[in-house]
């Protein structure tokens, strides 16, 4: 009998590659590797991108609304720090306004390390006002309390 196309060794290799691919996708979606080394990640970001994330943290808003063509938001999305909504892709979207969401693990890390990452000696309320002046016309933080209450008839 001839050699089969799908032997045990090929199956094991396929399973290893599939599992590694799944782990990479989960890591990209959740932002776990970025969050794990938040200090080094933070140091590589340009100032404006750090300020956008600081604005969202100080606003206590993990998501925001902005133009797809906004350079800071699109670069953060490209780095895997923020995500586009399903179905939105950065092709011919210059005029599109959409929601961006900070990766879950990264959001937790930003909250946990905010004193180290942001200026600890700065008054947070004053800093939030400064950032709102700088980014308020480009980025609108979305607070969970801004969402409409669920319709009880749908329950």
Q: What is the average per-residue confidence, as pLDDT, rounded to a whole number? A: 83
Main sheet: strands, sense, barrel: 4 strands, antiparallel
The rounded distance between the terminal residues' Cα atoms is: 61 Å
Number of domains: 1
Q: What strand line-up does the widest sheet have? A: 2-3-1-4
- SSE order: HHHHEHEEHHHE
- DSSP strand count: 4
Strand content: 5-15%
Q: What portion of residues is helical? A: 40-55%
The SS-based structural class is alpha+beta
C-alpha Rg, in Å?
Answer: 20 Å
Please specify the SSE layout and strand pairing.
Layout: H1 8-30, H2 32-36, H3 38-44, H4 47-59, E1 63-67, H5 71-78, E2 82-83, E3 97-102, H6 104-112, H7 114-117, H8 124-135, E4 139-142
Helix pairs in contact: 4-8
Describe it.
The protein has 155 residues and is an alpha+beta fold. The protein has one domain (9-143). The chain has helices spanning 8-30, 32-36, 38-44, 47-59, 71-78, 104-112, 114-117, 124-135; strands at 63-67, 82-83, 97-102, 139-142. The chain has a four-stranded antiparallel beta sheet with strand order 2-3-1-4. Helix 4 packs across helix 8. Residues 150-155 have low confidence and may be disordered.
